[in-house]
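BACKBONE STRUCTURE TOKENS:
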Amino acid sequence: MLLAPLLGIAPRPHSLARSLEGVREALEAGLPSRAAAELVRVAEFQPWRTELWESAGGYALQGADLQAALAYLQHSAALDVLSPRGYLALGDVYQQAGDLEAALQSWDTTQQSGIQADEIAPRLLAVHRALGDIQAVIADLQALTNLRPADVQMRYQLGLYLAAHQPEEALAHLAQVADLEPALKPQAEAVLSSIRAASRADDPAYTLLESGRAMASLGEWGLAAEAFQGAVDLRPDYAEAWAYLGEARQHLDPDGSASQVSPGLAELTKAVQLDPASLVANTFLALYWQRQGETSRALQVLEEITQLYPENPALLSELGNALAQTGNLQAALAAYQGAVSLAPDVPDYWRLLASFSARYEYQIAAAGLPAARRAVALDPGNPANLDVLGQVLLLLQDFTSAERFFQRAVGADPNYAAGHVRLGLVYALRGEMDPAFNKWKQVELAAPGSTAADQAQRLLDNYFP
């Protein structure tokens, strides 16, 4: 004992030993936040072990204790002992806490310290997307594509982002995607063909518009909006580009929760002001008013534009829809019939006529049934056509025939949820309650949150209270 002080030998405090044991036990129990707290106690007993603060921060991050992780990692940085991996973790903490700019700064330090780019680039991509820094997103995607040349999904994303900003530069990437990935080939080729066709006009704004339209058809409304915005930036007098931008704004913010005013109206109003006779601008404006529940305003727009384009069957069908919503079923039927007379070989217009008849239970035998049969005759493999014929037959109480066409609809597309819902309804109307219950439960499980699932739930509530 006399030699102990001279040799630097001293017993460990009981509390230090207990904390060291606590670290081990916490890790074995899968409790990283507790291990972090115990490590901090050890660091306080042994202040020269500055590396423990970074370890504690890492464990706190694993345990989703962001406040503690931030405090420990910042303390390590203040001691100037935070390693490159520590800065990587600190950036992760900032990102999860919502401080995206601080995350970028932390990762910038990491980039200069030898951490593999493949670890940093995905983090940068996520933050740049959240910040809406498009050029940075494109740079991140290009870096990741270079790092992972076999990652077709990453190349596809790069192609889409380029299509929204520099369409010609997207061509090579989308062509590779079409060659390498059959599952993405239709989408890639849709954008490719639009850009190539539009490029022949030698009008960059038009090319952006067509590229945006292709992406909108794929449901990529965010990128489509960027393409449309680029088109109006190049040509502020481009009415159609303003109209498409207005439509995109509505898809991005359908309930208006992200803005003070109803999204899309300003752009659509601008489009109509620039070109009062624009078919696209007026059609989108009418759709806007319909979505707002302003049927009379939608009808006014449609009546005016239909006078300018009386030979357009799509307009007549939309006019029929608006008239039906106002209760003028006779005029609505005449509009739908006008559409099919203009395009007698297009099954969609026959299906719209039949759907109108079924929805409002109007002229079912006289108009709905022949229209539904014509739609099926023109395109017998389309489940929507088979479904509408089933609906008409169901309303006419021909349950056997209705069941047959609903079966054909789900046979053509097993994922066609509406057909399964209506099959269940046929069973219920015939008193076959077990098959009906099973059908509706199947839809609920297969397509949760969908319109079909909501219908199935309502039917279950009605028939099985």
Observations:
- The radius of gyration is 31 Å.
- The CA atoms of residues 441 and 456 lie 7 Å apart.
- DSSP finds 27 helices and no strands in the chain.
- The longest helix spans residues 14-28.
